[in-house]
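Why does residue order matter? Because the sequence determines the fold. Keep that principle in mind as you read this record.
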Amino acid sequence: MADGLRRLISAESGRVLQEKLESWYRDYEINSCDQNLNRCCEVIELNSQIQGQLFTILNETSREGGHYAGVETIKTRLLPWLGTCFSCATSGRLSETNLSLTQDSVEKERQLRELASNQTFQLQELQEELTSTRLQLSHVQQDLAKTQLALEDTKTKSATTLSAAEDEIVQLKAVLKASRAQEKDALRKLDRLNDYEQQIQILRDEISILDAQKSVLQSRLARSRSPSPRRMESKSPSPLPLRSCSPGRARRTNASRRACLVARFGDIYAQERLDAENLLRTYISDMEMVQRIIYIAAVESFHAAKMAYRQFKIRVRETLSLGHSGPESLEDTVLDYIVRHEDLYDVQGSVNEVIRSMNINPKISFPPEIDFIVISTLIRELCRVAFSMQTLVPPLDIAFGTDGELFSETKYHRSFDSDFTAVLVAYHVWPALMENDIVIVKGEAVTKRGALWSRRSRSRSRNRNRSRSTSPLLSRHLSRSRSPSPLRSGSPRR
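Structure:
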């Protein structure tokens, strides 16, 4: 008995029961019904444990007193208490409580069965998902194995291809090295060829210059034998200097073309001009009018040729600028194209323009039955020469002259029928050729006293009812830079 009490005291069951009751009391309002019931069941279980231990102690104690010891106490205290606990008055409430507890237990069991069923269903679903996942994993592993095999195969093929590619690269490098060597050799040959071509071009330019000088000397010799020499004296018969070479062919041949054009201008004065003069004399008896017609034809030819050159150059520049690429500038390319394709120049259009301008010029007149077309040969040659002179650098042009201007010894020769004491120009016979405002070939003019007061009226032009207006005679010089050029030699002055 003493050991049982000691165990009961050491277990502190009473203190634990008291603490549970106090905790239940504190949390009773905030707990749910299930929680309160659980607390109550815990208290009952603990209480039953204490009661079981007390009944054990009661049994041992009564056994220690003998067979009849403690009977009175049991009769007077235990049995009445037991009878009170299990009396009929409380039996109904206990039955109700037991019924309620039974119903709750049945409901709890039903919920537990439903929960177990749900958990079983979820477990089955999880097992199915696990099986499906395992199948997918198996497929993925199979695909991975196939991919690894393909990768190994690709690596093997790549290694073989790489080896072949390396061999091919080595071969290509060898071919490239040989090609570069051939290219260098070809470039060296091309450089030598360019040097040869440049030397050939220089020799051709020198030959052209010599031919031009020969032509100049021949024309000068022919004019020196004529009764009225018109040319300008040269200070020293020095050869034409070579211009500086530039990438464009037009600039490389500039010196030779200039010499040829200057010589051609002199030939026109010596040949075509005289032919036109003789032709006009068959229709016009007035020599002054004939010379005026020829001079105005020369002036208008240069004007028409320059206008045609500007238009032609604009069209060529617009065409070549679309695809121009190269070491040469666009201007040099345009100039080279014009020099190579001078045959595209519409010379007949310029001739028609000159004739139209001459028909409305008030300073000249012509018989009504004849037109200025009779001197179209002279006009055509002048237009061609004037057009070609615009391709030079700098271009050549004729001097501007007006009747009644002060006579200039540096620009004109006096004609054989001039008054050598007069200082004013009555009219011009041939224009002077200029380069950068420097006279390179003298023109010819007639000087007379009282030239401004002795002009005869042009009654024949009024009878023909031609509407005449002054044509533009001023030609704008398009020179850009000066280059030394010798004066064209002429016949001795009179």
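The beta strands are 397-398, 412-414, 425-430, 433-435, 438-441, 443-447.
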